[in-house]
Every structure is written in structure tokens, then in C-alpha cells.
């Protein structure tokens, strides 16, 4: 476990310097982030306190802080949080954002509790497949009625399956279906990544949380790594984005896509 955590930390440390640039220049990622922000603002209000998992360089934390929501950001990568610290200083957000270098196994060590919500964006929670400790720790950190909102990489992405089948790469097309996960490449490093259906993911939290809503996140829109499709067919991609926004909460579309967004309430 220690070796696994060290490799994950090193991989994210190595990508920290170019993380924001890669994010901002990817139009699909920017659209996906805007959808998540809409869901955040629909569920949290000014003055709420959120615990953020896998915060990265604090892109989401800064957005929320500027909207009057306090954030306690956590990440396994010290270098990611160094960039967040610079953003806190340059934006004058010292009273709105706190942070700590913490892995998912260390969340219980945070001194604060009684949070209004927990957030996790862009598949950070796909880096583990045992949620027995984390689910209990998050339950302890949330106030009654508190919410978890997580954007999770889906097991079933039709775009990925069809794209790689057309390229005659069936192993890659169905790579998400394996139970043992895959070693995803991250700036030359390897991060073990596991994929879940919304039902599987919700089951990890069934002891203390009830699923409120599931949204698809990129069912019709091509995944962020297929930026060539966007550049070549920008108008079509924007139409697909609009279709995604209109259907994201509808079954069966909300069970498919590159990611899904799940909202869970602390049940008692």
C-alpha cells in the first residue's frame, strides 16, 4: 500500500507544473467542469463549508471560494497544493480556503468536521477500489443531511468502445471492464485506475448514504482526450454538449458516459 501511494503521489507531483495549462486549453474539460460547477451551485450555498478530495491545484476550490463557499482542500500531492497556495495568496482567499496534504486514508486526521458537503471532481476517487474506510470517515466528517458530490470515471463509455473498435484495438476498447483496473499513464508515471458503474459506486457508501441523483457526464460528447474531434467538428461537438446537458439526468443516459456525477446524502 505504501508503495502504491508513493507512486500515485509522484505521478501527480510530476504533472503539477503543467496541470492548469493542460486543463484550460482542453475545451471538453472546460465544458465538463462548467457542468459540475452548475451542480455544485445548485446544491451548496454561500457560507457552506466543503471538504474537497483530490483537489489538485485548486481550480474548483478557487471557483467555489469566489462564490462564497469555504473549502478545505486535500490532495496527496504536495506540489499540487503548492500551486493552490499561490492561488490563495494571489486571489486573497486565505480565509476561504484551507488545505492539507492528505491521502484518502488520512481524511480522519483532519481536525475539522461538520462539513456541509464533500466534493471530488474528475475521477480522483477512481484511484482506489476499497472504500470501506473512506466512506466511514466521510460520514464522520459530514453534518446531518450533508452531501457527497463526486464526478467519477464510468465503466461504460460508448465513445471509447466504438472509437477503439474502429481502430481495431479491442483490448483498449474494453479496458474499463476489468475488475483489477489499469495503469493509466500520467505524464510518464503510472496511476492504477479503477472503473465503476453508478450502482457499484453507490454500493460502496450504502451503510451511511442514500443516492439522491445520478447524472451522465459526457454521454454524447466525446471524451476529453479526443480533442481532435472537437477541433475538427466544433459545431457538432457543441450540439452534443447541449444534448448532454438536456439529458444528463434521464435514464438510461445517466448510466453511460465518460464520467458520471453522483449526489449522495448522509442518510441518518
Provide the CATH topology. Rossmann fold
Radius of gyration, taken over Cα atoms and rounded to an integer in Å: 18 Å
Q: Order of strands side by side in the largest beta sheet?
A: 3-2-1-4-5-9-8
Shape: globular
Intertermini distance: 32 Å
Main β-sheet: number of strands, strand sense, barrel status? 7 strands, mixed
At CATH's second level, what is the architecture?
3-Layer(aba) Sandwich
Keywords, please?
Rossmann fold; globular; alpha/beta; 10 helices; single chain; 268 residues
Please characterize this protein's 3D structure.
There is one protein chain. This protein has 268 residues and is α/β, with parallel strands linked by helices. The protein has one domain: Vaccinia Virus protein VP39 (Rossmann fold). 41% of the residues lie in helices and 23% in strands. The chain is built from 10 helices and 9 strands. The protein has a 7-stranded mixed β-sheet with strand order 3-2-1-4-5-9-8. Helix 1 packs across helix 4. It starts with a helix and ends with a strand. The mean pLDDT is 94.
Short overview:
This protein has 268 residues and is α/β, with parallel strands linked by helices. It has ten helices and nine strands. The protein has a seven-stranded mixed sheet with strand order 3-2-1-4-5-9-8. A two-stranded antiparallel ribbon has the order 6-7.
Amino acid at each position: 500500500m505504501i508503495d502504491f501511494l508513493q507512486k500515485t503521489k509522484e505521478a501527480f507531483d510530476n504533472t503539477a507544473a503543467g496541470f492548469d495549462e493542460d486543463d484550460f486549453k482542453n475545451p471538453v474539460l472546460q465544458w465538463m467542469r462548467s457542468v459540475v460547477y452548475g451542480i455544485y451551485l445548485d446544491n451548496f450555498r454561500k457560507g457552506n463549508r466543503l471538504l474537497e478530495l483530490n483537489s489538485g491545484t485548486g481550480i474548483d476550490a478557487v471557483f467555489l471560494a469566489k462564490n462564497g463557499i469555504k473549502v478545505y482542500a486535500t490532495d496527496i500531492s504536495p506540489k499540487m497544493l503548492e500551486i493552490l497556495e499561490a492561488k490563495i495568496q494571489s486571489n486573497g482567499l486565505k480565509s476561504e480556503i484551507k488545505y492539507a496534504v492528505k491521502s484518502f486514508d488520512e481524511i480522519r486526521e483532519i481536525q475539522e468536521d461538520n462539513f456541509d458537503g464533500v466534493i471530488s471532481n474528475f475521477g480522483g476517487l477512481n484511484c482506489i477500489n476499497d472504500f470501506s474506510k473512506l466512506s466511514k470517515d466521510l460520514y464522520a466528517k459530514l453534518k446531518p443531511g450533508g452531501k457527497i458530490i463526486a464526478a467519477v470515471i464510468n465503466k461504460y463509455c460508448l465513445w471509447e468502445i466504438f472509437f477503439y473498435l474502429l481502430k481495431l484495438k479491442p483490448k483498449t476498447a474494453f479496458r474499463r471492464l476489468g475488475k483489477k483496473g489499469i495503469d493509466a499513464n500520467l505524464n510518464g508515471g503510472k496511476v492504477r485506475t479503477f472503473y465503476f458503474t453508478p450502482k457499484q459506486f453507490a454500493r460502496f457508501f450504502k451503510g451511511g448514504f442514500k443516492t439522491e441523483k445520478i447524472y451522465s457526464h459526457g454521454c454524447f460528447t466525446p471524451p476529453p482526450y479526443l480533442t481532435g474531434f472537437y477541433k475538427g467538428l466544433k459545431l457538432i461537438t457543441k450540439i452534443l454538449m447541449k444534448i448532454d446537458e438536456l439529458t444528463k439526468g434521464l435514464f438510461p443516459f445517466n448510466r453511460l458516459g465518460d464520467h458520471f456525477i453522483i449526489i449522495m446524502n448522509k442518510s441518518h
